[in-house]
Each structure stands twice: as C-alpha cells, then as structure tokens.
Amino acid sequence: xxxxxxxxxRTRFSTDRGVTLAVxxxxxxxxxxxxxxxxxxxxxxxxxxxxxxxxLVPHPQGEVTARRLRFDGQDLLGLPARAMRRLRGSRMxxxxxxxxxxxxxxxxxxxxxTEVLRRHRRLDRAAARRRAIELLEMVGIPNAEKRLxxxxxxxxxxxxxxxxxxxxxxCEPQLLIADEATTALDVxxxxxxxxxxxxxxxxxxxxxxxxxxxxxxxxxxxDRVNVMYAGRVVESGGVEDVFxxxxxxxxxxxxxxxxxxxxxxxxxxxIEGLPPQTSKPPTLCPFLPRCRVAVPACENLMPAxxxxxxxxxxxxxxxxxxxxxxxx
Length: 328
Ligand SMILES: Nc1ncnc2c1ncn2[C@@H]1O[C@H](COP(=O)(O)OP(=O)(O)O)[C@@H](O)[C@H]1O
Ligand SMILES: [Mg+2]
Description:
Order of helices and strands: EEEHEEEHEHHHHEHEHEEHHEE
CATH class: Alpha Beta
Bound molecules: adenosine-5'-diphosphate, magnesium ion
Distance between the termini: 32 Å
CATH topology: Rossmann fold
C-alpha cells in the first residue's frame, strides 16, 4: 500500500479578487522510502500541493477537495483538526523555505528541539538533550551543545534553516516535505543535507516530497518528479525519463534547449511570458500561449495526461522525441 495517495486534489482560494485554482486535479502516490521531486515556476502550485496534504491551507479562504487523500490508509480530509495536528510534527513533517515562519523567536533553539522530542518521542529531559545535540550535528551545526542555549535570531539564515530541518527530522517522520528547504544554503551544506535525506530514506524508509527550483538537485536526489504548471501536474515520471526524455513542452521550456540536466546549469530556464492564474479548469493546454513546440491539435483539443512509457506520463500533443538526448 502506498504511504500517500493523492487523487483528484483541488485547492481553491476565494478572495475579493475572485477565485484562484491553486491546485487543479493533482494525482500521485508515494511509497515508503521514495523521493518525489516537485518542480515548476513560481506560482505553479507546488507549495499549495504540500500545504494541502499537510492540512495547512488557510481557512476559510482556501478549500481543499480530493477524490482521495490518504496517508497510511487514513483519510486526511475527514480527519479532525486535532488529529491532523498530532500527525504533523510526528508522522508527517514539513520544512518551509522561510524558517522564521516556523521557529518561535522567544524560545531557545534547544527548547524548541527538545520539546518536540519530549512530546512526540516521549524522551526524558537528558535523552532529549542528547538527541537534540546529535540532530544539530547531523545537519552540520558546529558547537551543537553550546548552540542549544541560543535564540533563533542569534543564528544566521542558513543555520536557522538547518535547525528547522533538525526539528523536522527529530520525530523520524514517515513523510517529509521539504519546500525549497536548501535553497538558501550554500552548496556544501546543501550537499550535506541531501546526503542526510537520502540516508533517511534508505535507513528509515522515510518518504520525501522535495520541492525545488534546482532541476540539477532534483535530478540527483529524487527517484521521480512531477512537473507542475498552473496548478496541474503536466508531466510525471522517473527523473531520467523526465529529464532525458522530456515529453511536455513546458518541461522542455524549463530545461532550455538542451535536455541534458548534467550539462546545463541545473537552474530553471526562464520562459517568455507568464503562467496563467486560473479560476476554472482549462479547456485547452494552459501552457499553449507560451509553448515553442505547439502543434495544430493544441488549438482544438485538451491533451490527455497519458502514459508514454511505463511510469512516464505527460499531457502534451507535440512529439518531442527530436529533442531527446541521444546519450540517454
Ligand atoms: N493565501 C492565498 N490566497 C490566495 N491565493 C493563493 C494563496 N496562496 C497561494 N495562492 C495562489 O496559489 C497559486 C499557487 O501558489 P504556490 O503553491 O505558492 O506556488 P509555488 O509554490 O509553485 O510557487 C498561486 O497562483 C497563488 O496565486
Ligand atoms: Mg512555493
């Protein structure tokens, strides 16, 4: 049984400027130990997909619906708020891009870490302290023992982010969602965190959703990747399939003209134009106005999200095989 099952998930926001469909008909599942990447431009619905799963979409402006949203067999949408809170920070954890949003500025880092360990792992004070030091060392914080007494503002941004990662890992979650978690960190620390995450998936069977702008990082870390556009998953597959044999005009656009992630900069290539803000499910491919490889059928027909090869699907009507890497 998959650890996480998402089927037909929709997240709508109602504001005075109208309705936005932040997540539109998203479906995927995740096995224990699997690392799934989420990529796409800013505003494509990556964070909202994560927040919807974690039950963190603000109410009542935001509303999440799904034909199925299950964690370890349990229906998340039907779960009372208290039970959902208990799941978060114990069996599911999320690291946000901005750590100041999640750390309490008036409590020491040590207190915040040991509190989680005492509450969720039921460790006594001394054991929680030992584990807290171990966790800070794991995420590469030097002088961990001394650092326990410090307050969040005494840490640099990168250090705070590492503390957040330590807190997220402290409960040994079955599902970890990292939303641009290492974007602010320098490459050495990033590599250290990535190693740590990979080890966790192998040793503890943790499943990970890794949201990142860095295609190179996703290609190196993840098993599978979902490419998101306008709140939808437009391409999905193993990282090699998607990055060496991109099958959606948008994926191709993100990668630039050379679909060889190992030769490029790893960064998203800017695509001319802006992604649409949608209030209704689209009737044609939402990427059509910006697509370089559109074919006549794109003007008439909404592409089906169809499997190309086993486990590799895309919602695109153009044939992109001429762009595939011959070395793949
Ligand atoms: N609090 C909110 N109120 C209204 N709309 C929102 C809110 N948060 C996000 N959205 C909308 O949801 C869409 C997806 O946003 P998001 O998931 O944050 O994108 P990403 O993480 O891919 O950059 C955006 O187009 C944005 O307009
Ligand atoms: Mg985001």
